[in-house]
């Protein structure tokens, strides 16, 4: 019975660690999005106005697409590293 209780405690601790890691990843991603929004805004917005002109919109879209591509590349690389470490 003691082994079973110990296993349950270990399983709960592992699940808690996993949930914490997921929440940390979400927080890091949100921080990256916020940071990148600032970067793209500063890069693409010449002067504030009530609507976006096509050049500004194109700049913002390409800036964000580069961010998404970079994030996916880093995430995939990190996943590969974790999977190699687990085996």
Automatic annotation (TrEMBL):
InterPro entries named in the record: Tim10-like, Tim10-like_dom_sf
Keyword terms, alphabetized: Chaperone, Disulfide bond, Membrane, Mitochondrion, Mitochondrion inner membrane, Protein transport, Translocation, Transport
Major place of residence: mitochondrion
Record membrane topology: Peripheral membrane protein
Domain Tim10-like positions: 20-80
Protein task: Mitochondrial intermembrane chaperone that participates in the import and insertion of some multi-pass transmembrane proteins into the mitochondrial inner membrane. Also required for the transfer of beta-barrel precursors from the TOM complex to the sorting and assembly machinery (SAM complex) of the outer membrane. Acts as a chaperone-like protein that protects the hydrophobic precursors from aggregation and guide them through the mitochondrial intermembrane space.
Any matching Pfam family: zf-Tim10_DDP
Similarity comment text for this entry: Belongs to the small Tim family.
Name listed for the protein in its UniProt record: Mitochondrial import inner membrane translocase subunit
A GO CC annotation given for this chain: mitochondrial inner membrane
Single GO BP term: protein transport
Notes on the domains: The twin CX3C motif contains 4 conserved Cys residues that form 2 disulfide bonds in the mitochondrial intermembrane space.
Subunit structure: Heterohexamer.
Localization of this protein: Mitochondrion inner membrane
